Amino acid sequence: MHPNALFRTENRALMEALIEEAGFGMIFAATPDGPRVAHVPLLWTRDGALQFHLARGNALTRHIGGMTALAVVNGPDAYVSPRWYADETQVPTWNYVSVEMEGRVRRMDDDGLHGLLEALSARNEARLAHGTPWTMDKTPPATLARLKSAIVGFELEVQAWRPTFKLSQNKSADERERLALGLEAEGSRAMAQLMRELAQ
């Protein structure tokens, strides 16, 4: 989390929307083998928990159940050039959106894992523009059972939120618009849009 309070938000709906939109993040934990991270698809349960699964062979799998872990979801980010400011004394920076969530992790049973996999595939298949959505019943039961035996489902109950929405809130409205125009011209449309909508 960025130390500047201007870059924080208490808007829970905004943070949840980022998790839903990204659908992917990182899980960090300090294990007896040292610090470890896993990159995982995430499912927000809408009741305060993140669900994810890990390969049985992942360095976190044997330790993370019952531990406190950190989940991180990143949104858009972009380099901000000093050349876009009216004030020529500015220096380069980076604007970004990120939400850190800390909480206790519990291991799921087989039914929980199955539900997680169904929900993840349904959500992501629904995002595709063409074709018939894939469903788990299209996989032969024996194949599905074999594949599921290679992964473990987990749920992180979020106990602390640490968001950073660094969108040049420490600059004037005129400067922010100049930066947004510069970012748009370089193809960073998502960051420019967030700066206009959220950095008021």
Question: What can be said about this structure in brief?
Answer:
The protein is an alpha+beta fold.
Structure notes:
The chain has 200 residues and is α+β, with helices and mostly antiparallel strands. The protein has a single domain (5-170), classed as Electron Transport, Fmn-binding Protein, Chain A (Pnp Oxidase, Chain A). It has six helices and seven strands; from the N terminus they run αββββαββααβαα. The protein has helices at residues 12-22, 61-64, 110-126, 141-148, 173-185, 189-198; strands at residues 24-31, 34-41, 43-44, 49-55, 68-80, 93-107, 151-166. Strands 2-1-5-6-7-4-3 form a seven-stranded antiparallel β-sheet. It starts with 11 loop residues before the first helix and ends with a helix. The model has no long low-confidence stretch (mean pLDDT 95).
